[in-house]
């Protein structure tokens, strides 16, 4: 790739910003997050009396974290447009470390809720990392590079949940201490290694009205070419966060899995995601447009969620994960289309608004998913009705598919995709 495609920034020792730097930071970040997923519901269960109560309180824990992220994400995106990506990323790493250590030391539900609020408010990495990639990547390569970030997410889920499940088998709080240590290592990496990606001449003043989470969503809706993609993103995000919210509790109620088994199931999810987004996505985009890929991915994800809900044996979950290859590409395809509708100076705010929309769905998901799962938590293992949250996800994806098809039919036909240049 030419130097013009990845402009050097004036900070961080004048090192050129490159994909390798941000990929390492995101990998460590998601590894830390992945560590706690198999054990957080069980930790909540230590302070509750029965599965229904555990599900409800876990919903509140997820809700508070997501609500704080929703409020802060567009503000952090706007700050990164003004002061650069690097300092905002460092702020996020600090927030994660504080969140993990406070959760590890929690002695009651109120401490869990308080620590998740702090962590959610300061966790800046999703929106700002995407803006970092947009800074250093020409538009025709963004889908593939967003896919590479998704691959880091997948690798984090390959290693993190397995480690968290094994460590949780020793002590439920141990994964939180390890995750906090990783967040501190990421902070040191950012201070000494991670370069800035946004040159001073491309920065702009903070407009706090635009950084308001609701006004940023309105700005996203007004972008030319977005149209129905905004409700598509909303349905996809709500389905994804519903799945994330209930996965561990669902498999616990349906199959009797514990932290270790859940860690291995998330290992499988991460392996497939990394393979598809890091290896196959670039090859797929040589043959199909992001629009067509989004449609195919939505179909695959919809069928997979129906399968998750109907599964009666644990091995079936692994078979569905393996078959849902294209479902792992929907985020990169849609994000590339939205990013292409924004100017170079608005990437931070636009992708911050996309992240804000995602965070809004993360707020809504626990409020819908955990009560739904709670109503069926008393049913015997293997009962297909425990899959109610998965069927809800499938319905959301069916709605997203319909709107995506209508949107793409209303747009001018795209030119054949260009061959991506290796990163």
What keyword list fits this structure?
mainly alpha, 17 helices, 423 residues, disordered N terminus, disordered C terminus, 0% strand
Sequence of secondary-structure elements: HHHHHHHHHHHHHHHHH
Number of helices: 17
**Helical proportion?**
over 70%
Q: Which residue ranges are poorly predicted, with pLDDT under 50 across at least 5 consecutive positions?
A: 1-14, 414-423
Quick check: average pLDDT? Answer: 81
Count of DSSP E strands? 0
The SS-based structural class is mainly alpha
| Residue share in β-strands | under 5%
What is the straight-line distance between the termini?
7 Å
What is the C-alpha radius of gyration, as a whole number of Å? 20 Å
Oligomer: single chain
Biggest sheet statistics: none
Shape: globular
Explained architecture:
58% of the residues are buried. This protein has helices at 19-36, 40-45, 51-83, 85-104, 109-122, 125-136, 142-170, 174-192, 208-211, 213-222, 229-255, 259-285, 290-310, 314-323, 330-339, 347-376, 388-410. The chain has 423 residues and is mainly alpha-helical. Mean pLDDT is 81; it is low at 1-14 and 414-423. Helix 13 (290-310) runs antiparallel to helix 17. The longest helix is centred in the first third of the chain and has 33 residues, at 51-83. The protein contains 17 helices and no strands.
């Amino acid at each position: 790739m030419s130097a013009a495609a990845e402009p050097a920034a004036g900070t961080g020792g004048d090192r050129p910003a490159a994909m390798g730097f941000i990929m390492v930071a995101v990998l460590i970040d998601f590894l830390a997050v992945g560590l706690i997923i198999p054990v957080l519901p069980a930790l909540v269960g230590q302070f509750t009396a029965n599965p229904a109560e555990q599900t409800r309180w876990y919903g509140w824990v997820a809700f508070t974290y997501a609500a704080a992220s929703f409020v802060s994400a567009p503000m952090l995106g706007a700050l990164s447009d003004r002061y650069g990506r690097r300092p905002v990323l460092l702020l996020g790493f600090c927030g994660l470390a504080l969140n993990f250590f406070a959760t590890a030391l929690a002695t009651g539900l109120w401490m869990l809720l308080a620590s998740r609020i702090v962590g959610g408010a300061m966790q800046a990495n999703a929106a700002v990392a995407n803006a970092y990639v947009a800074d250093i990547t020409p538009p025709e390569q963004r889908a593939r590079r967003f896919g590479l970030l998704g691959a880091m997410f997948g690798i984090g889920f390959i290693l993190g949940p397995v480690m968290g499940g094994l460590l949780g088998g020793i002590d439920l709080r141990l994964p939180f201490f390890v995750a906090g240590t990783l967040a501190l290592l990421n902070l040191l990496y950012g201070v000494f290694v991670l370069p800035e990606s946004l040159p001073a001449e491309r920065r702009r003043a903070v407009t706090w009205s635009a950084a308001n989470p609701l006004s940023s969503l309105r700005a996203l809706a007004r972008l030319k070419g977005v149209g129905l993609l905004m409700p598509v993103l909303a349905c996809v995000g709500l389905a994804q966060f519903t799945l994330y919210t209930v996965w561990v509790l669902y498999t616990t109620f349906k199959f009797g899995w514990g932290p270790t088994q859940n860690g291995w199931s998330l290992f499988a999810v991460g392996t497939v995601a990394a393979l598809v987004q890091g290896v196959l996505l670039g090859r797929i985009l040589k043959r199909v447009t992001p629009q067509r890929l989004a449609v195919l991915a939505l179909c695959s994800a919809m069928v997979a969620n129906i399968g998750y809900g109907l599964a009666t044996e644990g091995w079936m979950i692994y078979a569905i994960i393996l078959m849902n290859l294209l479902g792992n590409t929907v985020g990169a395809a849609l994000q590339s289309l939205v990013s292409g509708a924004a100017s170079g100076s608005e990437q931070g705010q636009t992708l911050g608004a996309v992240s804000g929309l995602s965070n809004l769905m993360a707020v809504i998901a626990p409020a819908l998913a955990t009560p739904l799962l709670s109503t069926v938590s008393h049913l015997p293992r293997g009962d297909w009705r425990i899959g109610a949250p998965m069927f809800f996800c499938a319905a959301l994806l069916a709605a997203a598919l319909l709107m995506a098809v209508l949107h793409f039919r209303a747009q001018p036909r795209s030119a054949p995709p260009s061959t991506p240049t290796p990163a």
